[in-house]
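Researcher: Good morning. I'm working through a list of sequences from a screen, and I'd like to move beyond sequence-only analysis. For each chain I'm collecting a predicted structure so we can compare shapes side by side. This is the next one on the list. No need for commentary yet; just the structure.
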Amino acid sequence: MKKKVGIFIVALTICIGITYKYNTSNKKEIGVTQKTVTVSKQEKEELNNHFTIFSKYKLEEFSENSLSVENAIDFAVQYNFDNNFEKFSIYKERCCAYIDKEYIEKTVNHYFGINIDTYSSTEKHEFIEDKYIAPLASGGSYNFSKIINLYEIEKDKLLAELEIYHAEGNFMGDINEDKEAWEKGEGEVPKLIGKKKAVLKRINEGGKGRYILLSYENF
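Model: Good morning. Structure tokens for this chain:
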């Protein structure tokens, strides 16, 4: 999984393009009309890999307009540790690595469309001299996401219903395949551990479009 997910993560930090196709029925929830969106196999795989970024780096749930600074920072540090390790410097005396806050700031803005005014330590990551500290750790088990349903709730705003799976480090299958394919492959079969509903909003910046995450909740 590591080699297959890694390929998509870099590409998806730029943009996800979705071709909208609607069915004739609408779903209503909390008084909001939702149009079911049909996506191609490739688009679904791109979305699975995009949402896996949030489950893999253990983003905690939050409702719209309530993402905490600590939650955003912890996600960004872990994301960069895995995907931009060259931005870290090794602090051998403490068996850890540190990264300048500018990279954390860029990641938070890219994925959530927000700017953090004041940076400080979190329970997971110490903040010293404008740098965040992360422990040196080897890879192991991880979580990933799969889309169940996708709805347009308003222009440029999507609601995704997701299944969250946990995979052990020996799982070498493709997260986009089904359980039957996983059972035929190598390693332990991933286990369903929960479900999330996430809202994405498409924004344009410098002539380029991308999606930011507005909410991420259990359901």
